[in-house]
Amino acid sequence: MTDNKTATLKVHGETYELPVHSPTAGPDVIDIRKLYGQAGVFTYDPGFTSTASCDSTITYIDGEKGELLHRGYPIDQLAEKSHFLEVCYLLLYGELPAAKDLEKFETTITRHTMLHEQMQYFYRGFRRDAHPMAIMVGVVGAMSAFYHDSTDISDPHQREVASHRLIAKMPTIAAWAFKYHIGQPFVYPRNDLDYASNFLRMCFAVPAEDYEVNPILSRAMDRILTLHADHEQNASTSTVRLASSSGANPFACIAAGVACLWGPAHGGANQACLEMLEEIGTVDRIPEYIARAKDKSDPFRLMGFGHRVYKNFDPRAKVMKQSADEVLDLLGVEDNPKLQVAKELEREALEDPYFAEKKLFPNVDFYSGIILEAMGFPTSMFTPIFALSRTVGWVSQWKEMIADPQNKIGRPRQLYLGETMRDYVDIENR
Ligand code: SDX
Known about the structure:
Layout: E1 2-11, E2 14-22, E3 29-30, H1 35-39, E4 59-62, E5 67-70, E6 73-74, H2 75-81, H3 84-93, H4 99-110, H5 120-124, H6 132-142, H7 156-182, H8 195-204, H9 215-227, H10 235-244, H11 250-261, H12 269-280, H13 286-294, H14 315-330, H15 337-351, H16 353-357, H17 365-374, H18 382-403
Helix pairs in contact: 2-9, 3-9, 3-18, 6-7, 6-11, 7-8, 7-18, 8-9, 9-14, 9-18, 10-11, 10-18, 11-18, 12-17, 14-17
The structure holds s-citryldethia Coenzyme A.
């Protein structure tokens, strides 16, 4: 951060000079850390639309241009040329790995994919119709009761082991949540499969027959995981950072991130979007739903549309749209009605002044569900897949924050609009 600029604030008749820091990319920030001490005022920003909560070197988003960089590398290049575990290495360590480092990292992750056998009992406590995300919140949180040799967050080695364990075990946890939900036996990970293939096999293999991973599906799954890996200070990442700022158990903090991601305004939108496309059903009903999305008296919103940061196309949605066409074509899925509705809905919405004026474009969740459904997943598994991918983003941001010597507990203030002080009234006088 370069500190050669200041901002002048006049409040209550006094003038204050606040430092302005310039980033390597994006807007300048006004440093208000000493504002309350100097001026006795807070800033007010519910939803954090104009607030930088931290500094970071991991991911950069240019919302106006629709650009997403991981350690400087554009997401479309990573989606085309890299693969998920290499992107995990990049997010965790800051550079693309040399071949020998990548091989060592992939071997490490592969050898951490099994869960402690006792963890199976947590699944047995759930009803079979429990949402897989409910199961994941519980089981990921339960990891905090198991891996005590990687919870001393002051030890860089233990932080790294906890990161590897989380990245490695999330596919097993998610796949077993799916198997438990559909009443099939758990399938153990295999060390001779790559990350995405291992996950697909744990989801779709059954003891009654051999299972061969379809390379088309494995490549598509790996690309989906790459596209969801990290996204700056989104709600679930901010949740992980805030929970971790108290020094809490890292596994419990990731469980908090899983819980936040579940919401339909965030990672739950992929499930909500596919259910919306199912409800619309045919292209002739699209105008009715666009009208509802524009109607302020109707709580309905187009799921998979709009974004707090992107005021242009979400670059991930572009890649996902191409992938949807490729995967469905390779799978021989003829004119998928939901894909037809999605494409026509996108076309009509983007021609509508309401969406153009509010800069509402398809986001990462708009096309992902179509691919996942074509791969055989029920809608309830869409957000667990988002969560297993985003785990690397959560742990990378967590590691960055814990290693920062400036790290302190997050404790926002408020604009208080309640009662001023008043005396207790005995019940006989009320
Ligand atoms: C993700 O933060 C991240 O990076 C998240 C994410 C990640 O990778 O971590 O990118 C993943 O969560 C993607 C977003 C998935 N959610 C959805 O698709 C749900 C539908 N989208 C909306 O709920 C909404 O667009 C949000 C939540 C995504 C963003 O909401 P904001 O930034 O708080 O914007 P807003 O609600 O203030 O909307 C601004 C205006 C409003 O109209 P006015 O009050 O100004 O008249 O746009 C309208 C909104 O009503 N609007 C929509 C809309 N989204 C916003 N109108 C219709 N349909 C929509 N989808």
